[in-house]
Amino acid sequence: MVADGAQLNRLNPDGWKKDIALSVDMYNEWFLRFAPSAFRDTRIKTTVQVEETLKKTANLTNVSVELLRAQPEVLPVLRMATCPPLAVDRLVGLSGASKTLVSSMEEGKLPPRMLLDRLLRDLALIGQIVERMADPDIFVWLERKGPATDVEVHRAATIVADRLCGSMANPIIRNAQEKRQLAAIGSWLEARGYVPLTPGFRFDQMPPGTFSFRLNVPVNAAGTETGFKIPIDAIIKPINSKVQDLPLMIEAKSAGDFTNTNKRRKEEAFKVTQLRATHGHGVRFVLFLCGYFDSGYLGYEAAEGIDWVWEHRIDDFAEFGI
């Protein structure tokens, strides 16, 4: 057993090629079986949201300043209702509205320091562009006399929801995969007598034999006295550990292609650096991998002193003293 995890995978490059292939196979099998349903469930919920937005805009005949001010989160739906669908920067360019305003609305809020006159003016400009560019092939009632029928509204909402979900396909799949990975860890731990903790505990005072998901761990910003919190996907206190021992921290990672993982490989190194600078070199941080992680990604993480457990060999968690 290598309880500190020092040599489980990161110093065994001869085994990487085989594990990469098995991990890709596992991800692809999951994707074919469950990704369509995850996407479909999200699309159903999104369709309801689009229908609500259409109702509030009188079926896109009145995209009012009052609505945009009260519910800025409707903007992504409205961007997908135009022909062609508008990217954020294109909406800014066409409307002349502040990019800060549009970016904030994409996050469901308004800029707190924006002057009221400018805010109202820009919201009006956004509403005018949406109304002017509303897709007549989807919202067929806009070019005729008479109101939209319920069937037409639902059909239009479904199309806009498809567009919206298409633009968010990767996050939808990634969120579904993360839930599945954490569920796999939870089942594995509970089968070995571990107990989940309820919120309200300190991560460095966890009782042995406990675990928790999505915990924010405090760290200090480098060279300053200020601090912030780093989200940790799973945190486990081994049954045989001492109270003063730090728990094992796990980052669940999944990927459907090799390119994206290499773009984001520095994220884990940043987390480890901050955690160790604040809580000492006793910090144990491990990746839980499923999907497309090639030798370039693995080599980078290994060089940073980060080890990992492959999901297709989940029992390897036992090598970390769990």
Count of domain modules? 2
Do you know the CATH topology of the largest domain?
Trna Endonuclease, Chain: A, domain 1
Structural class: alpha/beta
Based on CA inertia axes, which overall geometry fits? elongated
Quaternary structure: single chain
User: What is the number of beta strands?
Assistant: 6
Low-confidence stretches are: 1-6
Order of helices and strands: HHHHHHHHEEEEHHEHE
User: Which value, in Å, is the CA radius of gyration?
Assistant: 24 Å
Biggest sheet, spatial arrangement of strands: 1-2-3-4-5-6
Count, helices: 11
Terminal Cα span: 10 Å
The percent of residues in helical segments reads 40-55%
Main CATH class of the largest domain: Alpha Beta
Content of β-strand: 5-15%
Strand count, sense and barrel status of the largest sheet are: 6 strands, mixed
CATH architecture of the largest domain: 3-Layer(aba) Sandwich
* Average pLDDT rating: 89
Short description:
The protein is α/β, with parallel strands linked by helices and 322 residues long. The chain has two domains: 13-37 and 170-320, Trna Endonuclease, Chain: A, domain 1 (3-Layer(aba) Sandwich), CATH 3.40.1350; 39-169, no CATH class. It is built from eleven helices and six strands.
